[in-house]
Amino acid sequence: MAKTRVKANRRSVRRAAPKRAQPKRATKTSAPKQGRKRRAPGKSKPRKTITLRSKRGSSSSASTLASAASAVGRAIGRTVAVVAERAPWGSGRGDAIELLESDHRRLEDLLKKGEETTARAVKGRKELLDTLTNELNAHELIEEKVLYPALKSHPEAKEIVLEGYQEHHVADLLVKELHGLARSDERWGPKLKVLKENIEHHIEEEEDTMFPTARSVLSRADLEELGVRMEAMKADALRRP
């Protein structure tokens, strides 16, 4: 009986004995990364407005620079065109053909400006016609006194040279008639147009036929010597009142 109680007491002790607490495993805590701040709860991620403004600013600056560059380019282009138009004259480097071709571009420009005028532009027409007359007279003079005589002795150039004299004569008649008309006269514009067509035809024949012929029958040295004479003669002609 006593043994039974002892066994029963041992069982009750075992049951009543508390369980040993299991040691907690240490958890690894990752160290916070440097340089990165945690956002406080409830706060939203800020928008990157600075980057967007920067892009808009750079785009606007690029557009402004492009516009400025374009304006400078146009100004330079106009300057180069003016310089190129008159470059051979006074440089001492152009031969006779190059000098005459430069004259042709100048005459074409003046005729185009004259064609664009209206009867209201009385003063503008007068100034333009005076300039055109002086330039045309000087151009015809150096051709008839320098180039044409040098070419006329060559059979392959004689016919085109004789035509050149006659085309100059027709142009001179038209210029004289323009001076005799009032600048506001309705016939002034059409007559200038006829003069323009006449001179353009003359230029085409010279540059397509006469000048290539001149280069084939005259040496480079001959053309340069003719160019020197032309420069001196034209400068003297344009100084006259």
In terms of topology, how is this protein built?
Elements: H1 2-16, H2 49-86, H3 96-115, H4 122-152, H5 155-180, H6 188-217, H7 220-239
Word description of this protein:
The chain has 241 residues and is mostly helical. The chain has a domain at 81-239: Four Helix Bundle (Hemerythrin (Met), subunit A) (Up-down Bundle). It has 7 helices and no strands. It has helices spanning 2-16, 49-86, 96-115, 122-152, 155-180, 188-217, 220-239. Helix 3 (96-115) packs antiparallel against helix 4 (122-152), helix 4 (122-152) packs antiparallel against helix 7 (220-239) and helix 5 packs antiparallel against helix 6 (188-217). It is elongated, with a radius of gyration of 48 Å. The termini are far apart. Mean pLDDT is 78; it is low at 50-55 and 75-87.
Q: What helical percentage do the residues reach?
A: over 70%
CATH architecture of the domain at 81-239: Up-down Bundle
Order of helices and strands: HHHHHHH
- Give the tally of β-strands: 0
What distance separates the N and C termini? 161 Å
- Radius of gyration of CA atoms, rounded to a whole number: 48 Å
What overall geometry do the principal axes of the alpha carbons give?
Answer: elongated
CATH superfamily of the domain at 81-239: nmb1532 protein domain like
Which regions are unreliable across 5 or more consecutive residues at pLDDT < 50?
50-55, 75-87
Question: What fraction strand?
Answer: under 5%
**Major beta-sheet overview:** none
Structural class by secondary-structure content: mainly alpha
Please tally the helical runs, counting DSSP H or I stretches of 4 or more residues: 7
Mean pLDDT: 78
Q: What is the class of the domain at 81-239 in the CATH system?
A: Mainly Alpha
What is the CATH topology of the domain at 81-239?
A: Four Helix Bundle (Hemerythrin (Met), subunit A)
